[in-house]
Write a structure and sequence with these properties.
Length: 222
């Protein structure tokens, strides 16, 4: 009985003394400069800045903010991807083999420990299509939520721009981003640094989004 009480007290003390998650900003680099930034709140909200596109993930959902000649407008990510689907003339996914994920060892990126993963055809593990490094450190979980949202939009937009919906390779890639916080993704981008510091809560608020019909008209007019 006493041992159980001591264990309970130790767990309570650890919970009380644990540092709360901090606000931080992650800078991801590509070979020729900064690819995108992720502002991550201690409460799990995230904001991604990537060129002329802003993404916000908060308790109300996932949002995209874009700019055109008329100014900025917001949409729900689900609606944005649905409109891209509606614009496809052929909605048949590309013919691809099954892809799976395999962990291959430890790695460190920007001073953060992670696990190296390969995305490869299921039947030929020796032929990696993409390699990446993922960390499971809870302190960086909010960054991971932002990076996963960025990947979802980027993969969805790029595959549909090529004339087809995402295939098996793209699905495997998105499963990778859902595993944890991706620190490096092939040669496309890698974490450069993380800076801690308070971020105003309004940075994670999304403007009122267009409904799907209004979004379709706005995108068609671009």
């Amino acid at each position: 009985m006493m041992r159980r009480l001591l264990m309970s007290f130790a767990l309570l003390l650890a919970a009380c003394s644990a540092e709360p998650p901090a606000d931080m900003t992650a800078y991801y680099a590509k070979p020729d400069g900064i690819a995108f930034t992720v502002a991550a709140a201690g409460n799990g909200d995230a904001r991604v800045e990537a060129g002329d596109m802003t993404l916000i993930r908060n308790r109300q959902g996932d949002f995209l903010i874009q700019r055109d000649a008329r100014g900025a407008y917001a949409a729900r990510v689900d609606d944005y991807l649905a409109v891209l689907d509606e614009n496809l003339t052929d909605r048949t996914p590309p013919v691809q083999p099954d892809y799976t994920l395999s962990a291959t060892g430890a790695a460190r990126v920007a001073g953060i420990d992670g696990v190296r993963w390969n995305v490869h055809p299921r039947d030929t593990p020796s032929l990696p299509a993409i390699d990446a490094v993922v960390t499971y450190d809870d302190r960086h979980a909010s960054i991971g939520r932002g990076v996963a949202l960025y990947a979802r939009v980027l993969v969805g937009r790029n595959s549909r721009s090529a004339g087809s919906p995402p295939g098996r390779l793209e699905a495997a890639v998105l499963r990778l981003f859902d595993r944890g916080t991706v620190l490096r993704f092939g040669q496309v981008f890698a974490l450069d640094r993380v800076e801690s510091g308070a971020i105003p809560a309004e940075r994670f608020a999304a403007p009122a989004p267009l409904d799907r019909a209004a979004l379709k008209r706005r995108m068609a007019a671009r």
